[in-house]
């Protein structure tokens, strides 16, 4: 009599342990990890003249740059003697002209509400910048000894 009384209870426990819609032979699928979106480019290289090279943040070696190459945070660009290149920023169309024998890095940018911002690190050489909409854009240039911010006004720190 005890065996009969517990049988329906065991059956009920076994059925409640199965996910809805699954049979005893099926196993529920494991949850998939969320897919992280691919990073968006910060800028593109254009107007290459002479020997221009890029070092990706995820790479150990320098490689030759190509026209319209996307650049991401922490990538570096260098121009050899006599070479030039332009960085056109994806967010706002601002342009930075790299002079001969320059080395820059695309810095991590901390967004500011209502303002497109670009951060660069100039390790060597000369750059010239053009902001399309200075009232809504900001360019921060860091060197080994100074930080310069340009936008509506220029601030030397």
UniProtKB/TrEMBL annotation:
Signal in keyword set: yes
Signal recorded as keyword: yes
Residues of the signal peptide: 1-24
Domain FecR protein per the UniProt entry, residue ranges: 75-150
Cross-referenced InterPro entries: FecR (IPR006860)
Superkingdom assignment: Bacteria
Alphabetical UniProt keywords: Signal
Classification via Pfam families: FecR
Name listed for the protein in its UniProt record: FecR domain-containing protein
